[in-house]
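As promised in the previous annual report, we have extended the structural survey to additional targets. Below is the entry for 3-oxoacyl-ACP reductase.
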Amino acid sequence: MLAARRVERVAALSEQIAADGGIALGVAMDVTDETSVGSAYDIAEAAFGPVDTIIANAGISAPGRSTEIPVAELRAVLDTNVLGVMLTAREGARRLIAAGAQGSGCGRIVLIGSITADMTGQGETMYSASKAAVAHMGRNLAREWVRQGINVNVIQPGYIRTELSGDWFDTDGGRAQIAAFPRRRLQPIGALDAPLLYLCGDESAHMTGAVFTIDDGQSL
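The corresponding structure token record, generated without further manual editing, is:
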């Protein structure tokens, strides 16, 4: 089940998954809206049965100097990156508890943070703060739900060429940033696949409250 505000994006990805032999469904969901989140979970359960794995991956940024960014943009970052993660995770936890995760131990929630949670820099203060909140949120939710059969873990990716970064890495400043990384490269988005699948699977049954940095050594 793929959910996002831009439903045309997840619909296209669902079609691609189906063409490759998988089964997927795309649905519109605004993570900042509790009603929208609940409706998306309803659709998921109607299509596939009880949800057992949740990945909270929505995120936006508001780059620029902190003295100049409009307050509306700052609020949008917090609403999506912090409140949105909480609403997505807690609605999933409610469904998991109702479905009997305490007995099965099959509940998995993975929050996607960022290495900027542990770094300082210029131009991404609110984004970095929101990702630090995600890391601490993950550990607290893991503790809160540890007896309900729900594992909560956090992945903190490094810099990847995505729509969020735009054309930054094609600018002089972006190229200089890459050159400053120990391995002088961006990591591919596929580097996250194996760790994510591990945290969603049975092999991670005894792992909860962990924060994993996956950044190809960029933060060293």
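The longest strand covers residues 150-157. The chain has one domain: 50-214. These points will be discussed at the next consortium meeting with the crystallography subgroup.
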